[in-house]
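YM 10:42: Transport permease protein sequence, as discussed on the call
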Amino acid sequence: MAHPTVAVLERHLTLYRRLWRASVFGSFVLPVLFLLSIGVGVGGYVGDVGGVSYLAWIVPGVMASSAFQMAAGESTYPVFGDFRWTRAYHAARATPVGVPDILRGWMLYILIRVLVNALVFLGVTALFGALHSPLAVLAPLACGLLGVAVSAPITAFAATIGHDSYFALLFRFVMMPSTLFAGVFFPLEQLPDWLEPVAMASPLWHAVELCRAATLGAATAWPAWLHAAYLLAWAAGGFAWAVRAFRKRLED
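YM 10:58: structure's back
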């Protein structure tokens, strides 16, 4: 018998193999179209940013924000549905699979999804000459770390709520502001001084900094290890919260 964590991962990959066509547009095509419309179209009016074209400057931001949105989207309704509608987690708990195994398998699935998307996105942007450093190959790793850092706490949140209407609040008051004010579309220095620390609290900003440093060969605002440690702290804290939330929910 496969390790319980691997069994959970296999279950998610098997389901995705049957449903992947429905996610192609949102996962691959839409980010590329968005990148071209903003990076090339708007970039023609913006000009250079930080000594590089706006297209090259925005590539790492769009890559990280795509990972951010994918991890969040996968961790809302699918998690809630496996509790409320299909009761898949209850079925898994009736087997030798434990709660940590359920969550580790889920996090590995999110990591794989984000890494694959980031690699494809990176390959497409390379065709447009938007990568300025061989270190760009490390950018998907930053996206993968971001995916886990975002997915863990949102998975925990999804396990604590009793109605899916709460996700609208999450998307409107957390996801959207994080995407707009995390340095994806413009330098963080253009924000008011009081708003900069708020933007820096978002895991997305740290991933954008790491991705931009990788694709442009530039220095990060903080030491790279500190950005990574911040994302790891979110992942670890979210995982611990998710373990408690899942155990409580499965005992009800």
